[in-house]
Design goal:
Largest sheet: 2 strands, antiparallel
Number of domains: 1
Structural class: mainly alpha
Radius of gyration: 17 Å
Number of strands: 4
Strand order of the largest sheet: 1-2
Shape: globular
Distance between the termini: 22 Å
Length: 227
């Protein structure tokens, strides 16, 4: 990992060979997750209703999309998102990573994905302790990567996967904020390893603030720098 990543992220790169015994959450992380998630569920309740109505008006399909993802210690986590693709997209087109100008994405879905507000229902996963506000992304299990050589390779065969699964996945994180949108998983996992070896309250706060800024600018689907 080059020193330029230190300049970009503000924390030190590490080797994927680091011992898993050194990976642990900082004190109070879970307590802070629960408190903030409880407040967020109350504050965001009006948005849930607005998005649900908008999705229903567009095509009368389901409001939510259910998906199984990797959780801590490779346990399966069931997450919900606001549906951003056409009804039965997986059955009609196949299950693969979304890409630029993806025809499966609805009009409401374009806004929700650009702002990452389609992920809002995952606040419930944070509240239950299955996820954290900040951490490696909760990956869809073995999702085909359309922009990656050998994109159908299982996640478990990508270097760094085992270590990133030693912590709870996050709603946002180092890779989500800093990594280019379509880089291979092995590069994104390196960002994840930087996070889990440097995690702290201040780093979490920094990543949350940057994530809010990206949301306000609608840059989550950008293929370039997000901020």
């Amino acid at each position: 990992m080059s020193s330029s990543l230190k300049d970009l992220t503000g924390v030190y790169p590490i080797s994927h060979k680091v011992s898993s015994d050194l990976i642990s959450e900082y004190p109070l992380k879970r307590s802070l997750d629960f408190i903030v998630a409880s407040l967020a569920l109350i504050i965001s309740s009006a948005l849930w209703l607005i998005f649900a109505v908008a999705i229903k008006i567009e095509d009368r399909g389901p409001v939510f999309y259910r998906q199984k993802r990797w959780g801590k210690n490779k346990n399966t986590v069931k997450v919900y998102k606001f549906r951003t693709m056409v009804v039965n997209a997986d059955e009609k087109f196949g299950r693969f990573q979304a890409h630029e100008n993806d025809p499966r994405i609805t009009r409401v879905g374009k806004f929700l994905r650009a702002t990452s507000l389609d992920e809002m229902p995952q606040i419930l996963n944070i509240w239950k302790g299955e996820m954290s506000w900040v951490g490696p992304r909760a990956l869809p299990i073995n999702e085909v990567q359309v922009k990656e050589e050998n994109g159908s390779l299982p996640d478990e065969e990508i270097p760094g996967f085992d270590l990133r699964c030693r912590v709870r996945p996050g709603l946002t994180g180092m890779a989500q904020v800093y990594a280019p949108r379509d880089v291979p998983r092995r590069h994104k996992f390196r960002y994840d390893l930087i996070y889990i070896q440097n995690q702290s309250f201040l780093l979490d706060l920094k990543l949350i603030v940057l994530s809010l800024w990206i949301t306000l600018r609608g840059k989550w689907e950008s293929r370039g720098r997000k901020f």
